[in-house]
Specification:
Layout lengths: L1 E7 L2 E6 L11 E9 L2 H7 L16 E8 L11 E4 L2 E2 L27 E2 L16 E4 L7 E2 L6 H6 L3 H11 L7 E5 L3 H12 L4 E6 L2 H11 L2 E4 H4 L2 H7 L6 E6 L9 H9 L8 H9 E9 L12 H7 L2 E4 L4 H13 L11 E4 L3 H9 L8 E4 L6
Parallel strand pairs: 10-11, 10-13, 11-12, 13-14, 14-15, 16-17
Antiparallel strand pairs: 1-2, 3-4, 3-8, 3-17, 4-5, 5-9, 6-7
Helix pairs in contact: 3-4, 3-11, 4-5, 7-9
């Protein structure tokens, strides 16, 4: 089969790899019909995530058709069209029972924090991902969800990560009616978080980035204010000026390890890898939020230390909430939001490329060319 093959930082290619096989009675094999390139994949692509091994196939956002099931799979059948959450979760451990599917204790048993994630380095379990024609899906009775009749595959693939992560970012913010919410990062997740903030009753939503086409997209899609941090000066000063000197009620870090905007953070976190990524957006979130406010973090950082102003967190009485999105927990309400027209996920997709052009897809997305917001890959074996 054809699959994306990681060859080192900023080097990916399409290659022939062996077909996946059933390794456990609860496995399923899925023929991929859609697969996304995620902003989180760029952290892998750029070499910022530990233990990203040459030969790995990325891709934690995908849909597909079930073509084979293990002997103990009871909730799927061959021929089902499914969307597959990016969390690999057993459904039975102490954390899955709390619906913390991103922290499954079995899917990534060598780790003390994150659970298993498709195509996201050996730090997240070493599972190959869905930027391929076929993929092995463990715990097939738990994660894969049959796509509702009539749902567009482009909407369905966005429900595997982008929509639930953006929604949970807003949910973790504890937004109250009338709150001012500031989102850092106008990538797909940040834009979705800004859109979902309105669903929780926000009275004002602001998004901060430095790429003009992304800011313009955010204004149109999320119906929010959008500002270039290169033009407004210190975001903390801007936040105070626009909120009667109090600070915003909720800040969302939807950037993570590759944030721009601070030379020291960029050098130590992105160039020299002395910390787990550039924490610029997290700094700004902590400093922009009001005393007693909430900072919600869905941006991806590595498992080592970061330089963050923890003293400001303590002295301001800030609540920090963070996690990988629990996709399975959120899917019922988000599927309904899509079916009812409350959310339009596929509108975020700007580029559809054949899987064979995966290297070009990464280049476009990483370098922000051609007004790229969200690229989707379509394998040659997909029956369209």
């Amino acid at each position: 089969m054809l699959a994306m093959n990681y060859r080192g930082p900023k080097r990916v290619r399409i290659d022939h790899k062996p077909m996946p096989e059933i390794l456990h009675p609860e496995d399923a094999i899925v023929r991929v019909t859609r697969s996304c390139i995620c902003g989180s994949d760029l952290h892998l692509y750029n070499g910022n995530v530990p233990d990203t091994r040459v030969g790995m196939t990325f891709g934690h956002e995908f849909t597909g058709e079930v073509v084979e099931i293990g002997a103990e799979v009871t909730k799927l059948k061959v021929g089902d069209n499914v969307l597959v959450p990016f969390n690999i979760a057993c459904g039975k451990c102490a954390f899955c029972r709390q619906e913390l599917y991103g922290n499954c204790h079995e899917a990534n048993s060598q780790a003390t924090a994150v659970g298993g994630i498709f195509g996201y380095s050996h730090t997240a379990g070493g599972y190959n991902g869905g930027q391929a024609e076929y993929v092995r899906v463990p715990y097939a009775n738990v994660g894969p969800t049959v796509i509702p009749e009539g749902m567009d595959l482009d909407d369905a693939v966005m429900l595997t990560d982008v929509v639930p992560t953006g929604y949970q970012a807003a949910e973790m913010g504890g937004i109250q009616k009338g709150d001012t919410v500031m989102v850092f990062g106008a990538g797909p997740v940040g834009i979705m978080a800004a859109r979902c903030a309105w669903l929780f009753g926000a009275g004002r939503v602001i998004i901060i980035d430095h790429v003009e086409y992304r800011l313009e997209f955010a204004r149109n899609y999320a119906q929010c204010e959008a500002y270039n941090f290169n033009e407004i000066g210190d975001p903390a000063v801007f936040a105070k000026k626009t909120t009667d000197s109090l600070g915003v009620d909720v800040c969302i870090d939807a950037v993570g390890a590759e944030a721009a905007g601070n030379a020291m953070q960029t050098i130590t976190g992105r160039k020299m890898l002395l910390q787990a990524g550039s924490a610029t957006a997290l700094h700004w979130a902590i400093n922009c939020v009001k005393k007693g406010g909430i900072v919600s973090i869905v941006g991806v950082y590595g498992p080592t230390d970061n330089l963050v102003p923890i003293g400001n967190v303590v002295n301001k009485g800030i609540t920090i909430r963070a996690n990988q999105a629990s996709v399975k927990r959120l899917l019922p309400r988000l599927i309904k939001h899509v079916q009812d027209g409350v959310l339009d996920p596929k509108a975020l997709i700007t580029h559809r490329l054949p899987l064979e052009e995966v290297a070009e897809g990464y280049r476009l997305f990483a370098t922000k060319l051609d007004n790229c917001i969200k690229p989707v890959l379509i394998p040659p074996s997909a029956k369209l």
